[in-house]
Design a protein that fits this description.
By secondary structure, this protein is of the alpha+beta class. It is built from 4 helices and 13 strands. It has 2 domains: 259 residues, Helix Hairpins, CATH 1.10.287; 130 residues, Glucose Permease (Domain IIA) (Distorted Sandwich). Helix content is 60%, strand content 15%. Strands 1, 4, 6, 7, 8, 10, 12 and 13 form an 8-stranded antiparallel sheet that branches. The chain is rod-shaped, with a radius of gyration of 58 Å. It binds zinc ion (ZN). The site of zinc ion (ZN) has 5 residues, from loops.
């Protein structure tokens, strides 16, 4: 199972790396910011997937631990029941011992009584013999018939009666005693059988409890094993997640480096332009008397381009200022200036620079990011919700150059330009954003 799991991790890692552009690619020394962002997004969504798997593992581990506790409680229950059954068995065993002793005692008593009966019979026989010898007759009738007078007959009858009734009484008593003992012996023996029976079923119960307990113990062992492998899986996922986080950070660094590189290009371009302007001014000064105005500006953008470093990015009215405002009933900070106008409205670069990113996002719609170097300082402008963009990533642009058209794409309600100005590079928290009015005359 673990082997298989490792294999899948290895494959997933290979796919992850394979599907993304390699970090240091000499053939393509400057991955565009857009590509890098894409790569970063892929890495971070992969990381999110892994993190949600980690959470799954965590909840599986919790469920497993709960089950373990449940089973531990059941095992304890079984232990208590087994102990109880053992006590009952011991009680039965004691009762059996006592009852067996009773049976033995009764057997002895019965034996004694039998001996007594035997002795008595001997005695009766002897007495009969004595009568026989005295009367010369074999039975009582002979004794009676041997009377020589009525008085003698009466004496003999009373003597015989006395002897007979005494013997009969003794014999009856003995018989009753014997029957009583036999009956008691039977009762005690049946009680003994019942006890043996009870004890046997308790032994069976104990066996059943022990086997159920063994089953639970086995289940517990399995759960412990499962928990260990889940932990291992979780650790591996966590390793993978932290590697992806590292990768994400590395790409973030590359994005910053690329932004800095483009900003540096913009700065050099600015210096070059300044040099050219100075040279042209010097030339103009030396030929100041030449007549005939130079051909008027050829480009006629519909957005008037103001003089100076900055120009308004679109014509139209300002609908939302930079700062706190209320949107759909909730207060929010508006990081840009909104300009709205109807029809086909061109959007122009607010200053000379380089396009660092031109793409579509669900919130900004068609959006262009431009980095500027102005007096050696980096600025970034953002043009959002455009109906279309005319420039790609990496393109150098001049102040007033068309970069797209005003639109209503992304999270927007009605055609407008959402324009942001950042003193420095753009970041997700927009910490460098400033009010564009600080630099641009709207
Ligand atoms: Zn806006």
């Amino acid at each position: 199972m673990n082997k298989k799991y490792f294999m899948s991790i290895a494959i997933a890692a290979a796919l992850t790396i394979g599907s993304l552009p390699t970090l240091a690619n000499p053939a393509n020394a400057h991955s565009s910011v857009e590509d890098l962002k894409k790569k970063q997004d892929e890495v971070s969504s992969k990381k999110e997937q892994i993190n949600s798997k980690i959470n799954e593992k965590k909840s599986e581990i919790n469920a497993n631990i709960n089950k373990q506790q449940e089973i531990k409680a059941k095992i304890a229950e079984f232990d208590a029941k087994i102990k109880d059954t053992e006590n009952k068995i011991a009680e039965k065993a004691k009762e059996i011992e006592e009852t067996t002793a009773e049976v033995e005692k009764l057997k002895v008593e019965i034996k004694e009584l039998e001996n007594k009966i035997k002795e008595r019979n001997e005695l009766l026989k002897e007495r009969a013999r004595a009568i026989q010898e005295k009367g010369g007759s074999a039975n009582y009738l002979d004794v009676l018939l041997g009377a020589d007078s009525f008085g003698d007959f009466i004496n003999r009858v009373s003597a015989v009666n006395t002897i007979v009734s005494a013997d009969k009484k003794i014999m009856d008593e003995q018989k009753r005693d014997q029957e009583k003992l036999e009956k008691k012996k039977e009762e005690v023996e049946s009680k003994l059988a019942q006890l043996e029976n009870d004890k046997a079923s308790l032994e069976t119960l104990k066996q059943d409890l022990n086997s159920e307990k063994a089953q639970k113990a086995e289940l517990f062992k399995q759960l412990e094993k499962q928990e260990a492998s889940l932990e291992k899986e979780k650790v591996n996922l966590e390793k993978e997640s932290s590697e992806l986080a590292k990768m994400e950070q590395q790409i973030g660094g590359e994005i910053q480096a690329e932004q800095a590189r483009l900003a540096e290009l913009a700065r050099q371009r600015e210096l070059e332009k300044k040099r050219q302007a100075e040279a042209a001014a010097a030339k103009k000064a030396s030929t100041s008397s030449s007549g005939g105005s130079a051909s008027a500006s050829v480009s006629t953008p519909s957005t008037p381009v103001s003089s100076g470093t900055w120009t308004r990015p679109a014509s139209g009215s300002i609908t939302t200022e930079y700062g706190w405002d209320v949107l759909n009933g909730s207060s929010r900070f508006h990081y840009g200036t909104d300009i709205a106008a109807g029809g086909s409205v061109p959007i122009v670069a607010a200053a000379d620079g380089y396009v660092i990113k031109s793409h579509f996002s669900s919130s900004y719609g068609n959006v262009v990011y431009i980095t500027h170097s102005i007096n050696g300082k980096t600025f970034t402008t953002v043009y959002a919700h455009m109906s279309s963009s005319l420039v790609g990533t990496g393109t150098p642009v001049d102040k007033g150059q068309r970069i797209g058209f005003m639109g209503d794409t992304g999270y927007s309600f009605g055609q407008h330009l959402h324009f942001e100005l950042h003193a420095g590079s753009w970041n997700a928290s927009k910490s460098n954003s400033v009010n564009p009015r600080q630099y641009i005359n709207f």
